[in-house]
């Protein structure tokens, strides 16, 4: 088949496949599900899912904090009237299952066969304000939970349907905000927090940031391509190839039913900058051969032949770098690794089908008149090569010193994460969450499963006393600001049976009194807050609470002390406990972060080692290739340690991805060196020739990669910011190592045995 007809057929086939990809991309949706970040396959996750099926999720709630007007307290009748109106409005909303508010909080009193719920607050009776406020501050569970300690703010807490998705969640939040405005609350007078609030904000920002990053990347890459090739086709063709691969990658992701989340949102930007490498190597070689006088057809065939091997290997190593992220138990990281790895391979396929087809159909380009040798790429790279070799002792010494300092600094890296880790400290959403930590119980949920010993129920007096002991430890030592358990039920019933007097809010003194109380528990089963603390048959209970988000390092230490306390101070024959909950699951991710990162890096290193062994049959050469690519990784680890950047879910992917991308240029370099050595007996001349041939593409692709990743530093998500900054720095240090350490190491360690020299290929000329 003639080449032009083959090119037309290729474009038609690729066009049809792209149309199919467009169909799937049109169905792609943005999503951020907090539950996706639980460690998949973990026994603790299975336990929590069964536990939440019995008691409900611990994070299906929204906190609405309302500040009283300046100079007033929450006990002002006018303010309480507005709070009560809001409470009633929220109670009537769809998907709201329960509302707790200062105005609907009641003190239950049992009289006869019924329960009378006496409100704590009476906004319509101003004369009772002093009496009401005194009672509130004496009543356990109100101050710090529904009313702030300084009485300047109140909270409405509303439970929502389990795992409420974004559309109905957004509608509910929008309705509440509209009602807040109608009630006269300014934006700085109310605060909202909760999983649903965070998920809504994250998805909205993902959509905006994806558009911003792609726009910045296109502008930046377009400029660099123009400066490199100075031709319209040198800019347009790479853009068409890479945008096509992004389309295909997103199409595959959509076909598998995966949405765009905090991690997969990086795929288009990541692919846009990474995918440029192959096209630049092909076009650079193509233009070089045209400059040597070869025909368009021969130039293209030589470019494809010489670039194909190196590009194939680099696509393999890069995709493996992403595929190794599939070792993660965190579903968003797993999906990101899988589909970005697939997209990298699709980019390679398009670079060697779509790009050659377009180059074949274009006219032979008019080449610019080359500049003087001293100012050309060859001249600049030639001088750099001579300088590096002349100063090789300094290069090695400085590299060694920087490496030692980096390793020392990297030892300071700590694994730490918080519930809103990806938001900057001054983000409005994070400030709202912090408001509840400063004035109320906090936003971090706590869950402890309670199971009575054999032959007992959760309402057994010894079980209740053991539970009360645990409550005391959690409030006094652990740091819970709010706690509720089956003990709360029994104490509340006892208080209700004794006229609602606060001094009666305690456990009974005898089994006989407890038996009388447990018979009355059924009167309170309609109260949802009590139903969520114990199963109806008394076979299991729940201890729940809230505290400030102290971070995973502090939480791990607190949990270790708690487990020690439970082992030594709680009689396991009376009561058995198990720590569970959403916060506990998120903390567990940290246990696997280091293991997953080491696994991913190990797989990458093994694959690169095997590739180099196959190419050169030399163990020395594997060290020559690995050192320039591991040095930048260690330097950036040192930067993280010095800057105090913690290892967390979002930053744990940096080293694996950076190594997989950085090794690309090395693969291209050594694959070209392998070809040059077939015609050049002198190792020195072969290295110099390869340096001049590959140097331009290495520098240009590295600049594009660094520039592309640097666009991510404009993200409002800390995780995305650090991914862009640290991978960009790794690649920047990588190109420096590539142009300095790599040639020195090759000449120092590689033992080249010249074979029978083949006839030189004219196209490889000077």
From TrEMBL:
What region holds the SSD domain?
Answer: 239-361
| Keywords for the protein's UniProt record, in alphabetical order | Cell membrane, Membrane, Transmembrane, Transmembrane helix
Q: Which GO terms describe its cellular component?
A: plasma membrane
The topology of this chain with respect to the membrane is: Multi-pass membrane protein
Query: Which Pfam families does the annotation name?
Result: MMPL
Entry keyword annotation includes Ribonucleoprotein: no
Give the stretches traversing the membrane.
Answer: 210-229, 236-260, 266-287, 308-330, 336-362, 393-411, 597-616, 623-643, 649-670, 691-715, 721-750
User: Is DNA repair among this UniProt entry's keywords?
Assistant: no
Show the InterPro entries listed in the entry: MMPL_dom, Mycobact_MmpL, SSD
The entry's localization annotation reads: Cell membrane
Provide the protein name.
SSD domain-containing protein
Species this chain originates from: Hymenobacter psychrotolerans DSM 18569
